[in-house]
C-alpha cells in the first residue's frame, strides 16, 4: 500500500510544498519494489509530475519454493508437500507457530447438487510445529493433508515469528478414489515419448 500527503495544497509563486510518501509492504513480500506517485494540478486531468521511488523489502524468512502444489492428490489418501524455511537475519529466530487452514471445493455435480461446494479441510498436519533457526540456517517444513472430497483444494500456511509472519500457499486438484491421475501421462503420450527416445537414440 502506498499513500502520499502534500503539505500545502495551494503553493504561492516561489513557494514550495513537501510530499510525504508512506509505503507499507504487503505481508510476506520481500525484495525490490518500484512505486510511482502522480501529482495533478487542479483543473487538469493530465499528470503534471511523476515521482518515482524504489525500496528493498527485507524479510526475516526466505521460503523456497513459494508454494506447494499437491500433484496426484486422491480422496482418502494422505499426500505431503515440503518447503525450506531460512533465517535471513543475524540473530536466532524462533518460529513460534505454523497454523494451516485449507478449503476443499468439492465437486458435487454428479450428486445432483451445485457444481462446487466449499468445505473446510479438517485432516491436515504440519511438521515440525515450532522450531528455532540460527542465522543462515534452514529447516524443512512438511504439510500433510488427507483430502475428503473430489475437486480443488486451496490452503495457506502461516509461518509466524515474534515480529512478523510469512505465508506459503498450498493447492492441488483432488481426484476421486480409484480415478486416474489427471497429471500422469496417458498411454498415447507414453508411446509417443518412447518413440521419440528411440529415434533420438539412433
The sequence of SSEs as H and E is: EEEEEEEEEEEEEEEH
Compute the number of helices: 1
- Enumerate the spans where pLDDT stays under 50 for 5 or more consecutive residues: none
Largest sheet: 5 strands, mixed
Number of strands: 15
Strand content: over 45%
Q: Structural class from helices and strands?
A: mainly beta
- Principal-axes geometry comes out as elongated
* Major sheet: arrangement of strands: 6-15-14-9-10
User: Separation of termini?
Assistant: 59 Å
Helical fraction equals under 10%
Specify Rg, calculated over alpha carbons. Answer: 25 Å
Rounded mean pLDDT score: 86
Describe the protein.
- There is one protein chain.
- The protein has one helix at residues 187-200; strands spanning 2-6, 19-23, 31-40, 47-57, 61-64, 67-74, 79-87, 93-95, 100-107, 116-120, 124-127, 131-133, 138-145, 151-160, 165-175.
- A 5-stranded mixed sheet has the order 6-15-14-9-10, with no helix packed on it. It has a 4-stranded antiparallel sheet with strand order 5-7-13-11, with no helix packed on it.
- The protein is elongated.
- It is mostly beta strands.
- Strand 14 and strand 15 form a beta hairpin.
- The protein has 1 helix and 15 strands; from the N terminus they run βββββββββββββββα.
- The model has no long low-confidence stretch (mean pLDDT 86).
